[in-house]
Amino acid sequence: CLRYACAKPLLSQETVSALIEALLDYTGGILVVSHDEHLITAVCDTLWIAGEGTVRQSKGDFQDYKQQCL
Predict the structure, then answer these.
(1) Are β-strands 54-57 and 48-51 bridged in parallel, bridged antiparallel, or unpaired?
(2) How far apart are CA 18 and CA 4, in angstroms?
(3) How many Å apart are CA 33 and CA 30, to the nearest integer?
(4) pLDDT, tens digit, for every residue of 48-62?
(5) Which residues of 22-31 are buried (b: 16+ CB within 10 A; e: fewer)?
(6) Which long-range contacts (CB under 8 A, 24 or more apart) does 34-37 make?
(7) Which pTM value belongs to this model?
(8) For a surface tag, which of 28, 35, 44, 52 has the fewest beta carbons within 10 Å of its beta carbon?
(9) Three-state SS for 1?
(10) Model confidence over 6-60: pLDDT tens digits?
């Protein structure tokens, strides 16, 4: 499991909320690379995990992934 710690968020909550709204309105495909749980759970239908030289599709949602990491 990839762990990321950031002393302070790079985007304000208002900016993240605006980004989520824009992404949800977008009708095309997108690839989101983020450590922001709120952003991921709000806009992603499928979770892909990159690590140990591979990329695999998660069998569950973000909460399931977090449980696997504990």
Answers:
(1) antiparallel
(2) 23
(3) 10
(4) 988 889 999 998 898
(5) eeeeeeeeee
(6) 35/4, 35/6, 36/9, 36/11, 37/62, 37/66
(7) 0.72
(8) 28
(9) coil
(10) 545 678 889 889 999 999 999 998 888 888 889 999 999 999 988 889 999 998 8
